[in-house]
Design a protein that fits this description.
three-stranded antiparallel sheet; 57% helix; five-stranded mixed sheet; single chain; alpha+beta
Length: 448
């Protein structure tokens, strides 16, 4: 396995390993510092109690055993939470809980305390006087562990809520959109289209395009006076030897291997430079919620709302053909745009998954209405009209007694001003009233 190629894929794993190693080192260093302090200074006044060497050893042993037991409980609960999140939201959403800052801080408290207790138990055996500083530090860590345990329970309950997962995925998606497509884009002087043709640039391995190192790739092309027209975006799946772009040389030698080095290919996708992956994560959460085994339509509706929020931001940003120029202002690199067809694909997938859930189709209709007021590009409006037509056909396949739920807020037309919530009808339009809703169920039939 090429570790350089897979380094990006396992960045989170390496980070967690380094984080755990640093926390263990802090615990060991704290134990050595406290032991050294007790040996160097007389701190009998600090503890406020008369401690014996044997009693302090027993107390520290009991504390270490308790902390390790609580740490085991916390790890067991964490594994249970990860298993539940994997089944409900998908395995790719697990990192939302694992990489949460509060969760990492809580686990750090327990890991430091446990490491400190084990190290102190080994060091105190050579002590010649009661460890007063160690007793005070142990007491403080005990209080910190109690507070961290209750905080962990609250954090675990909050992390299992669907709205928490959806908001974290949505916030990460919005942040990546802001980074990739800023509001103010500086026009590069002298930018023009790249010349057509050139030699095909082949993929070095099979996998996903994880990252395009634009600056380094542009500098490398400028040194050789070459141009490169890429045909892939981060997140695209390519096969080894497949064409990922066309390279046009201008006489100076340039190695394809050097260019391929700046196209990182991995075995799994990430949100970095790939906003489509963020939409797919929301689709995965919503699709699992709309499955018959789970049957949580309002979780799917929340996913639709976050998609609409991200699409609203994305539709207002310039996303034309990306041209990158060198320092002299000459275009060296281009890669395709994120077209409107892919923008509305997540909502279309939610339409298919919620085809038998009227309330989901109703919210999809509302989403189409909202996006119609925001998308002004001709191609985007054409794709939006196509989505509205497919949504109308899906609504028409519902049973007649369920269609009224969607028709009162159909995505094809706005809500009438004279619609009164709670009555289930529009004044002057008797067809909008469902047959079953004409009278309460407990109303006796009229006399013959």
């Amino acid at each position: 396995m090429d570790l350089a190629r897979e380094r990006g894929a396992y960045r989170e794993f390496y980070g967690l390993v380094l984080y755990a190693g640093a926390i263990v080192a802090v615990g060991v260093a704290l134990a050595f510092l406290v032991t050294w302090w007790d040996r160097r200074y007389d701190l009998s006044w600090l503890a406020g109690l008369e401690l014996t060497l044997q009693g302090s050893r027993q107390a520290l042993t009991a504390f270490g055993t308790t902390i390790l037991s609580v740490l085991g409980i916390v790890l067991a609960v964490s594994v249970a939470i990860i298993a539940m999140m994997t089944g409900s939201y998908g395995p790719r959403i697990v990192q939302v809980f694992i990489l949460d800052r509060l969760t990492l801080a809580i686990l750090a408290v327990f890991l430091v305390s446990g490491t400190y207790a084990l190290s102190l138990f080994l060091l105190i055996g050579r002590a010649e006087m009661p460890p007063h500083m160690a007793a005070v530090t142990t007491s403080l860590l005990a209080f910190a562990c109690v507070a961290a345990f209750f905080l962990f329970i609250m954090q675990a309950l909050r992390s299992l809520q669907a709205v928490t997962i959806i908001n974290r995925v949505g916030d990460a998606l919005d942040a990546e959109i802001d980074r990739l497509y800023p509001v103010d884009v500086e026009e590069q002087p002298g930018a023009d289209t790249l010349p057509e043709g050139g030699e095909p640039l082949l993929a070095s391995s099979t996998g996903y395009i994880r990252r395009i190192q634009v600056r380094r790739l542009t500098s490398c092309l400028a040194e050789s006076q070459a141009t490169l027209a890429l045909g892939v975006l981060p997140g695209d799946f390519v096969l080894r030897g497949a064409t990922v772009g066309y390279l046009r040389r201008n006489g100076l030698p340039i190695e394809d291997r050097k260019l391929r080095k700046y196209l990182r290919i991995g075995r799994r996708r990430s949100l970095y430079q790939d906003v489509r992956f963020g939409f797919l994560q929301l689709v995965e959460i919503g699709g699992r919620a709309l499955s018959p085994a789970v049957n949580e339509p309002f979780t799917g509706i929340q996913c639709i709302h976050r998609m609409v929020q991200a699409l609203d931001i994305l539709s207002s940003r310039p996303r034309g053909e990306n041209l990158v120029c060198d320092e002299s202002g000459r275009a060296r690199l281009s890669y395709p745009e994120l077209g409107p067809t892919w923008l509305l694909l997540p909502l279309d997938v939610m339409r298919q998954m919620g085809a038998n859930v009227p309330i989901v189709l109703r919210e999809l209709g509302t989403a189409v209405e909202l996006l119609a007021t925001r998308m002004h590009d001709e191609r985007e409006r054409r794709e939006l009209d196509g989505l509205a037509a497919r949504l109308e056909r899906t609504i028409a396949r519902l049973p007649e007694e369920d269609q009224w739920i969607v028709r009162d807020r159909s995505g094809v037309s706005p809500i009438p001003r004279d619609f009164r919530p709670g009555r289930g009808e529009i004044e002057g339009d008797e067809e909008a009233r469902p047959p079953e809703a004409s009278a309460p169920l407990d109303t006796p039939p009229p006399p013959p």
